[in-house]
Amino acid sequence: MDNSGKNKLICFDVDGTLVETRSSWDLLTAGLGCPIERLPEIYEKTESGQMSFTEGIRIIEEMYKNSGKATQILIKALMSDVLLKADARETVTFIKQKGYAVYLISGGIDTYVEAVARGVGADGFFSHASLEFDVAGNFSKINYGLGQTAAKVARIKELSVKHRVPTDEIIFVGDGINDVGAFDLTRHGVAVYPYDSALENIAWKKIKELSELCDIV
Q1: Is residue 151 part of a domain?
Q2: How many domains does the chain have?
Q3: Which of 56, 115, 145, 168 could form a cystine bridge with 46, CB 3.0-4.6 A?
Q4: Which of these, 17, 87, 199, lies nearest to 189 by C-alpha position?
Q5: pLDDT of residue 203
Q6: Residue 191: inside a domain, yes or no?
Q7: What CA–CA distance (Å, rounded) separates 159 from 106?
């Protein structure tokens, strides 16, 4: 992509893109001894409108509280358990050397996304969720925005203004159905295998390894 002499910007999804498939939500849920299978069930219902986001979050909050393990100390340790893809850091380093600003835009928990951003050397990150704790250090609340797809689009537009890069010159790298809006907006979506079938016909490029980005930027 020839952006010679221009500001350049690339954004990454996190789960399944920069890290191995286990997400921050999976890490947290499994670490608290709760059933991971509840998460996709609740997510699909909230995304499809079968269940309100408020109700979905309430169910997850109660599940975590009932685990009896949801302390700030344990959760902080769980969120530091970041397993980057083998070529993630070197790929981001190469891209930055090519003059790109690099941001992560994720539906994950902020402390986890921050750890990934630090691990790959990104310039910044946006996450869709954060956790609150009471004065005793026990989990109390999930702060979660409405709709990951729309949130990712909004973040890209903010970065477009901040870095003075038109949205259709921004590269977005992702693998999931909630990346569809970002792919449509930028028209430069790079789908990382194994990607959701919804990205098949709208991806600008398709790659099997992150390192293949080095031949694209």
Answers
A1: yes
A2: 1
A3: 56
A4: 199
A5: 98
A6: yes
A7: 14
